[in-house]
Amino acid sequence: MMGQGFWDDVERSQKVNQRLAGLKERVGTFTGLESAYQDLAVMLELCEGEKDPLLEDELTSGLAELAKRVDEMELEVLLAGPYDRADAILPFILERVELSPRIGPDAAAHVYTLL
């Protein structure tokens, strides 16, 4: 970005800056997950050393929250393919949800409410 002439092509420099911002956000997300994991690991060690029901409850809820965040990240990675910006994958997934006998119409309706 500091190269000579980089800012001369406004459209290209804007695309690079947008990509950079997206990558920084993604790194921040991973860093946050790693930090939460490390905090929970320390909390687990404390729980093993002393029997504190409040600490155990906090650990349990923290693990549930971390698992939820990881699940969300997995979905994001699943949908972060080359066609993600064009919303090409989501309609295909929704169609599969509607047609799946294992999922059923209630789950398909729930997916639509998330959009």
Describe what this molecule looks like in 3D.
- The protein is mainly alpha-helical and 115 residues long.
- The protein has two domains: 10-78; 83-115, no CATH class.
- Helices cover 77% and strands 0% of the residues.
- Helix 1 packs antiparallel against helix 2.
- The model is unreliable at 96-101 (pLDDT under 50).
Q: Please tell me how large the radius of gyration is.
A: 21 Å
User: Care to count the β-strands?
Assistant: 0
Structural class: mainly alpha
How large is the share of residues in beta strands?
under 5%
Which ranges are low-confidence, i.e. pLDDT below 50, for 5 or more consecutive residues?
96-101
Task: Estimate the mean pLDDT confidence.
Answer: 76
Helical content (DSSP H or I, runs of 4+): over 70%
Structure described in brief:
The chain has 115 residues and is mainly alpha-helical. It contains four helices and no strands.
Entry keywords:
2 domains, 115 residues, 4 helices
Topology diagram in text:
Blueprint: H1 10-49, H2 53-78, H3 89-99, H4 104-114
Helix pairs in contact: 1-2, 3-4
